[in-house]
Each structure stands twice: as C-alpha cells, then as structure tokens.
Amino acid sequence: MKYDADSTKQLNQLTQQLLNNHSEDSSEIKAHALRNVIQFHEYRYYVLNDPLISDSEYDALFKQLEQLEETFPELVTPDSPTQRVSSDMTEDFPSVPHLSPMLSLDNSYNADDLKDFDKQVRKLTGLQTGETINYTVEPKFDGGTIVLVYEDDMLVRAATRGNGTLGEDITNNARAIRSIPLKASFSQKHIARVELRGEAVIRKSSFHDINKKREEEGKNLFANPRNAATGGLRVKDSKDVTSRGLEAFVFQISHAEDAQGRSVLTELGSHHGNIEWLNNLGFKVPQSERAFCKNIDEVIEFCTKWEARREAYDYEIDGMVVKVDDPQLQEMCGATSHHPRWAIAFKFKAKQATSRLLQVEYQVGKTGAITPVAKIEPVPLAGVTVSSISLHNEDFITSKDIRINDVLLVERAGDVIPYVVKVMEDIRDGDEKPIVFPQNCPSCNSRLMRSDGEAAWRCVNTLCPAQSLQKMIHHVSKDGMDIDGFGKSYVEKFKELGWLHNIADIYKLDYNAISQLEGFGEKSAQNLKKAIDMAKQNPIKKLLQSLSIHHLGKKASSLIAAQVDHILDLAQWTVEDYVEIDEIGPVLAQNMVNFFAEETNIELLRDMESQGVNLKQTQEDKPIEVVKDHPLSGKTILFTGALTIMTRADAQKAAAALGAKNISAVSSNLDILVAGEKAGSKLKKAQALGTVDIISEADFVQLLES
Ligand code: IVH
C-alpha cells in the first residue's frame, strides 16, 4: 500500500481545501499540494481502481495545476502530473511504440472557455478577429482508445493508447472488430504507412443485452459501456470481441508517410476532408454527429445541442472535441507536453456525484425476483435529479459493502439508469448500519427462495399481488402483447379499482365503466377496446413472450412458437424437447416446463382463449425456410439505390430466405452489393473497396431464380 490510512485522510482533506479554493498559501506551496493530491488520486484511480473523487473533481484539480504552471513556468517539475500522459497498460500484452506520441486533450466546460480557446488559437496563428478559422466538432467517445497502423494498405498493427508513447499490442482483437477494415486503399494517396486513432465503443443498446446475458450466466456485470469496451479490447480470446459487439470510430490520422518514408501528413488536407476520405475507405467515422463550423459561435451552438442530445445518442460520450480544421494552422498552434493547442475537449456536465444512502426498499419483479432499491438524498446528475438507484441483488450489496448512511459514489452511465460505483469508505463516521436483506416477500410475506447459481432471491408464490401487477404491466407493454395506449398507469388504476387481478382480466374489461372514469370518455374507451381486440390476434410468439416466464425472450419465443400448432401443446413438452431447439438451454427449458406444469397457468391461458385471444400458430409464427447450398447462402448483402422490379423489403426477405444476411453499411465485411438506379455513395464506397461483388437488380432476380 503506497498510502496508509493517515496519509489518505490528510490527502482527502487537502483535496477538499483545494477544490473549495480556500488555501491562502503561496503559489509554490499550492502547486506542490496539487501535485501531491493529483498523484494520489491517479494512484487511487489507475492502480487501485478505487477513486475517491469524481472525474470532474479530478479535472478541476488538474486544471488548477495547469493554470498555475502556465502563470509560473518555474514551478513546473519533471514529475508533475501535467508532464506525462496517463497510462492504461497492463502486463498481459506486449507493448509497441506508436508512430507518433499520443497526447491528452485540454478541457473546457462552458462557452467562455471555448471563446478563450478561439482567442488563443488566433494568438498562436496570428489571425485577427474577423478572419475565418474553421473548426471541426466531433463527439468525445467514451470507450477505449485504439491506434491502428496500415502498411501497404493492410492492417498490420493495433494498439491501445498505453502511456501515449507505448501501447499494448491488441492486433488480434482489433481484427475481430467488424468496423475496422483489414484492408484500405491508402495507396490512392501514395501513402505507404499510416497511423490512425480512434475509439472502440459498445452501443448502449447492446450493452444492455450484454449485461442481461451476463446476469443470466451469473457473471459480474459491467458498470458501463466504457468498461465493457476497454475490457473487450483486452480479452484473451478474440472470439469474445465479436460477441461483445465492439465497434470502432476513427477520428484522426496521426502519421502518414510515402514509400520513401517521407511524412505526407500536412499534404493530406483538412481534418474534415480526411475524415470523409477515411469513411470512403470503409472506416466508421462520426457523421451526422460531426459539424464543420465557420466560427466559435457555431462551435458553441453545436456543443450545446449535443449536450442536450447526449442521453438519446446510442454511444456513450462525455463531451465534444473541437479541432482546428486546417493542418497548417494546427502546425502553427503546436502542442504542450500534455495536449495539442489546436484541439480542446468540451466536457459535458458531471455524470458522477456523491450522495448519502437513506434506506433500502425492496421491489418484486414480474418473475418474482426481489430487487433492492437504494433511496438516496436527491442529487443532480447529468441533467436529472436522482433519488433512487437499483442495488441489483444481495451479492451486489455485499461485494460493495454498502451500508445505510454510507456516502455512495453514483454515476449515470450506459443509459439513463444510475449506478452505484462504490462506497466512500474513507469518510465513514461510524453511523453506518448493515443492510439486512428480507427473508419474506414484502408484498405477500411468503418465504423467499434463492436457487443455486442465481443472484436473485425470489418470491415463488404465483398469486403474489406485487408479482401479478408486474406481470400485467409486462403483458400489455411493447415487449409483451404491445397493446397500444395501455400503459403502466392504466394497469395500476384498473387494479386499484378491483378490475384486474391477472392477465386474463385484461380481456374482460368493461369499456362502459372505463368511459365513465375521470379523464377517459367514450372515445378513449373505444380506442382501448380497439387496441385490445387487435392484440387478441397477435401471433403466439408474442403471447409467449408476454407471459413473464423467466429467461424467455423474443428470440426463444419465436423459436418455440415455430414448433407448435397450439400454445397448450407445450403442456406436453419435456426439458429434452426444448433443448433440442438450438439456442435453448436447460435453464430456460426447465422454466418452461415448470410454467406449463402449473394448473393455474393453463387455466389462465384457457380463460384468455375463451375471451378471443389467439392461442394457435399463425403464419407469422412459421419459420422462414432457409435454403442451403444457394449462391446467396452465408453471404452478406446490401441493397442500395432505387429498385424497380421488387420492393426493397421483399428483396431483403427473399435474400434472407436464401440464407443471406442483410447488412446496412458498406465495409470489408460486405460480400454483395445490389446497386439499383441512382445508387450513390454506397456504390462508390464498394467500388473503392474493390472486394465487394457489385450486381444489378436484374442479376439479383436471376440469382433468386437459380
Ligand atoms: S482527438 C491529441 N477526437 O479522448 C489526441 N480524441 O486524449 C487527439 N477521444 O483517449 C485525440 N473521442 O481516445 C480525439 N473525437 C475524438 C475523440 C477523442 C474520444 C479520446 C481519445 C483519448 C482522449 C484524448
């Protein structure tokens, strides 16, 4: 341990003083103090993986030190944290040198900071107010940095950022990321060797699925997409990269040389032009999320717009990066030892905060799982006020040693759901009390059970009122029967009125009574009836999915529905019957058998059938017959331009039925491009790649018939 309890306490106090700017000390003492606390927090963050302050507090300390050193350059010491870039290295991968050292970015937090940046760029380049400086603004992706090297158009190396000079060699893992072309025609511009920088990321939507799967497999959950991405770059088996859905954005050409080893970087042209070109070569680049701005006011407008959009965007971003677009101006700006002076990060409002845990409440889910929910002192976090946070399960509480009255470090990551990063153990004052997990269901008081290998305690009482409520909410939702306009609040209201006890009751509602309810009326009651009548005709795959059977998702519901004429046929199925279907494991199989062995469930389904709910296999439930040994089988295909013989949807369906996979972007993974009339950029890109089989719509139709 590098710091003992006493020094930890002292450094923590010093941190608070520095953050509150209370010190009256001389600049020299202050710089010394800042260096010490920053080094301490870097150690907590990078070595112990156990930070004591939030990212924005760290940034604030760093900025103070930078400003102090800028005003008094004589205070800079060689070991100052500003004099090196931080490291993400481990000993598991061999290290490789980057072709050009990778610096960090300076940070800005508001419009004034950006205006100061513009002023500084003008000073460094000698451009007057009124003379144009173009900026490119892109998201600051919050994933894992990747550095790619191509030689003679082939991907030869990929590395993490490491300490900025040396990175970890992760070539094999990068090769498994589909959005990284293994081959790209840099030779078009007479480039023999090139180094690109970018970020490996995981979509928030895939992150959800990954964690859901990990939860089902009893594995530890990732705290956020960034951890899943950086971890994904370092997996031992490259196959795991593919299953994690890693993608890579490219945002900079950092080195380019010709066959004679001469640098051609500044000859390439503007930053935004380079990014467009990389896109044409098959790289994933920021597109609609990138802006070309003619002045700093446009930059500010775009940054502000994206701060508001941040949550809706499917990738985690913690800010925007503003870059001087002209490479000549970039060169005139130069760099400090820490960051280039031609670029700056515009950081969004903090996503981390601390707050005290007041109490824990326990919620009963649709499959009976008990979820502990932390009630905390309300705290603003990235634009919303957070007062409740899921603690997932008992193991989560135990592994983080969370106690009532603890101060928690809270983060909003991955999506809008807040997450407890850790307990601030160092500021415990002895008033903390252990959390006692209940042994009985908070709703029906029956004894909770926990099966082997499962993280959750469950209420197994099929008549538990809290569980029935959640089952009904799920039943009407998009992932269930998708009854238009029937939301959670209706279910709660109708249940309160004594109209709903189980999902079959949903089909017995009295619309006359509904129309008399306050806020309803004839029209909305009729609309609800229409939506419910429509849902009655749903294919049985939707009905299956709406039953809240543990682990039964969309895919498995379709696979099972494809095998039965009537849903109640499943009452005869054994575990062996289920596991014969590829992709269905023994755990789900057992849950299915248990569900259909329960007489109340069979009665429920019969009751629904008597109300007109469809229980028979429909055309939509039938599997698409996939033809093997067809020239399209196993190929990836993309349709572009206007099709005249058939609609695009029909063409895609026909291709899928013959075993092809429809994809949406041109990359080195694409096998066939069907180019219709007026095909544009996708066609050009496929031609540039040179590896794609480009055919006409008529050729495609002929292929269908072959
Ligand atoms: S430009 C001087 N552009 O932010 C370095 N960086 O140090 C040039 N990052 O970890 C980097 N999105 O991986 C740049 N659009 C973007 C970025 C970006 C994320 C990361 C980068 C590095 C840190 C900057």
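^ 2-(butylsulfanyl)adenosine complex. Residues 102-105, 138, 140-141, 145, 161, 197, 199, 251-252, 321, 340, 343 surround 2-(butylsulfanyl)adenosine (CB under 6 Å). The chain has five domains: 5-83, 95-347, 352-433, 465-621, 636-705.
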